[in-house]
UniProtKB/TrEMBL annotation:
Superkingdom to which the source organism belongs: Bacteria
InterPro entries in the record: Aminotrans_V_dom, PyrdxlP-dep_Trfase, PyrdxlP-dep_Trfase_major, PyrdxlP-dep_Trfase_small
Entry cofactors: pyridoxal 5'-phosphate
The name this protein goes by in its record: Aminotransferase class V-fold PLP-dependent enzyme
Domain Aminotransferase class V residues, every copy: 30-420
Alphabetic keyword roster: Aminotransferase, Pyridoxal phosphate, Transferase
A Pfam family recorded for this sequence: Aminotran_5
GO molecular function, one term: transaminase activity
Ribosomal protein is among the record's keywords: no
Keyword Transferase: yes
Length: 425
């Protein structure tokens, strides 16, 4: 159903799966928010270079030079994709989780952190890993205006030391867009900095770091059609340059020498390499850069318009099922990316998701989506003891303690979304 020549064509649409009811069907991957399929373009780019892999930054040979060039050119491509300012650094990491933990480790001593309780655990939890940070958890707002007001109120009482606000651009549960520019303005007006968790935003909308006026952006390759194990933290260089290296080792150090007293003196790099010790994931990084180039060339207008149609199909279809309740923080009509969560009255969400898979060949996600406080607010319930991101045990027919999430993006055929709506009905 997907034209392979389309600029944002994805892989995996040829997978067929058996149904418990007999026969087989093409797999409908509707779990892009967890991991999106690879763009064909990314796969082709990786395939072209993977055979010619060499050690980055460490070899005089041709293949080392080639890999080093790919790695450093990728940094420039990612910087261009994000609209980075001249002094911004692009640090390559493993994922959004890794990027935010890196930033947490790089905070100046005693930084005050402000974070909404509605965040994904990756942006909610890293800050308290530092014993010297003070974290203020902000209550779930019920509109974007309330989000800005809540932040303004919280920042009004802060002292003059370093402060950081962490906010997601698009929720991984509701898909709702957060007022990033306004939150950045509120943060900066009070001398705080802001990091944007763009894990769900970047695959669906242009992210321009300078225009949004955020200090850092974090995202993951595997949600941006580049599933090869790399992520990005991009933004202000000063805190990163002054911080203790995230990983200590080769590549991060410029000069290491024994001291007369027997110890070791280390001069660390002040570039992004300071936090990238060890042999980097060149292929993962190159895949991200390839996805960034593909998205930039195709532009987001078509993607956004198409997603809007698919969101409308899902919303209209689900609205015809009285037992379905869509989960929204800012209202069902609030602008969102192609990520929607819901519960079905009288159904255990895990059983429902399992049935979508077994009977219709549809892959969605069920659970609490690593955002327990948010899902608790949305469901108005206390999630059970279901583990970090998993599904609680609830008997069929009991009130849902978790939710079902459907998500899509580039390359999603109409048929997948139509089949999903039919199946729910
Ligand atoms: N933030 C958000 C909003 C996410 O949706 C996710 C992934 N579900 C993450 C952070 C963490 O991303 P990763 O697992 O790639 O580190």
């Amino acid at each position: 159903a997907v034209e392979t020549s389309a600029p944002l064509a994805v892989l995996g649409s040829d997978v067929t799966v058996p149904l418990v009811t007999g026969g087989e069907v093409t797999y409908a991957a509707l779990d892009y928010a967890a991991s999106a399929p690879a763009l064909r373009r990314v796969w082709d780019d990786v395939a072209a270079y993977a055979p010619y892999y060499g050690s980055v930054h460490r070899g005089a040979g041709y293949l080392s030079q080639l890999s080093t060039d790919l790695f450093e050119t990728s940094r420039k491509d990612v910087a261009a994709f994000l609209g980075c300012r001249e002094d911004d650094q692009v640090v390559f990491t493993r994922s959004t989780t890794d990027s935010l933990n890196l930033l947490a480790a790089a905070l100046p001593t005693g930084t005050e952190v402000f974070v909404f309780e509605t965040e994904h655990h990756a942006s909610l939890l890293p800050w308290e890993q530092r014993e010297d940070t003070r974290v203020t958890y902000l209550s779930a707002p019920r509109s974007s205006r309330e989000a800005v007001e809540t932040l303004e109120k919280a920042l009004a009482g802060r002292d003059g030391g370093p402060a950081l606000v962490c906010v997601t651009g698009a929720s991984n549960v509701t898909g709702e867009l957060w007022p990033v520019r306004e939150l950045a303005a509120a943060a900066h007006a009070r001398g705080a900095r802001i990091v944007l968790d763009a894990a769900q935003l970047a695959p669906h909308h242009p992210v321009d770091i300078a225009e949004a006026d955020v200090d850092w952006v974090a995202f993951s390759g595997h949600k941006l059609y580049a599933p090869f194990g790399a992520g990005v933290l991009a933004g202000r260089a000063d805190w990163l340059r002054e911080a203790r290296p995230y990983l200590a080792g080769g590549g991060a150090s410029r000069k290491v020498a024994r001291r007369d007293d027997g110890g070791v003196d280390v001069e660390w790099h002040t570039t992004a390499a300071r936090h990238e010790a060890g042999s980097p994931n060149v292929i993962g990084v190159y895949a991200i850069a390839s996805a960034c180039r593909a998205l930039s060339e195709a532009g987001f207008d078509g993607l956004v318009a198409r997603e809007r149609q698919l969101i409308a199909t899902v919303r209209e279809g689900l609205a015809e099922v009285p037992e379905v309740r869509l989960l929204s923080l800012f209202g069902d009509d609030a602008p969102r990316v192609g990520v929607l969560s819901f519960v079905v009255e009288g159904w255990n969400s895990s059983h429902f998701a399992a049935a979508l898979s077994a009977e219709y060949g549809i892959g969605v996600r069920d659970g609490l989506f690593c955002a327990h406080p948010l899902v608790r607010t949305l469901l108005g319930s206390e999630p059970g003891d279901q583990g970090e991101c998993g599904a609680p045990e609830a008997a069929p027919g009991e009130r849902s303690l978790n939710a079902i999430r459907v998500s899509f993006g580039a390359g999603t055929p109409d048929e997948h979304v139509e089949r999903f709506v039919r199946a729910v009905k």
